[in-house]
Specification:
Number of strands: 4
Radius of gyration: 21 Å
Structural class: alpha+beta
């Protein structure tokens, strides 16, 4: 098989595979993510590090995962007074279930003793 034929064959297979994969990339109707956002000013670094150490183990049961936790690199407006964390969930219901769960409540006490926070949920539905 010539080099040109191999390239044409590879291109054709790529198009076929790509076309077959497109339906699986479509968003599922009625499903969208949710995000818990926490703006946190730490006053007890050791206590807050304990919170961060324990938090990930509480998330998988609610399909949660930490996407980011850092000081923001501001572009506009007033910066939060500390770090920002973004935790993703598959649904708003799962975000609320995690936040209201007994394990999260116990952990929240640890965070509240180590930091001052603003915590809110964003519905990931596109408006």
């Amino acid at each position: 098989m010539t080099q040109t034929a191999k390239i044409i064959l590879a291109l054709g297979l790529g198009i076929i595979i790509g076309a077959a994969a497109i339906p699986s990339l479509q968003a599922q109707p009625g499903r969208h993510g949710a995000y818990i956002v926490a703006e946190t000013r730490v006053n007890d670094p050791a206590g807050f590090m304990e919170y961060i150490r324990r938090e990930p183990a509480t998330l998988p049961a609610f399909h949660g995962r930490v996407l980011a936790r850092a000081l923001p690199d501001m572009r506009e407006g007033t910066a939060p007074d500390g770090t920002v964390a973004i935790i993703a969930f598959d649904t708003v219901q799962e975000a609320n279930q995690w936040y209201n769960s007994p394990v999260s409540a116990k952990l929240r006490e640890l965070r509240q003793g180590a930091a001052k926070s603003r915590v809110y949920i964003l519905d990931g539905a596109v408006q």
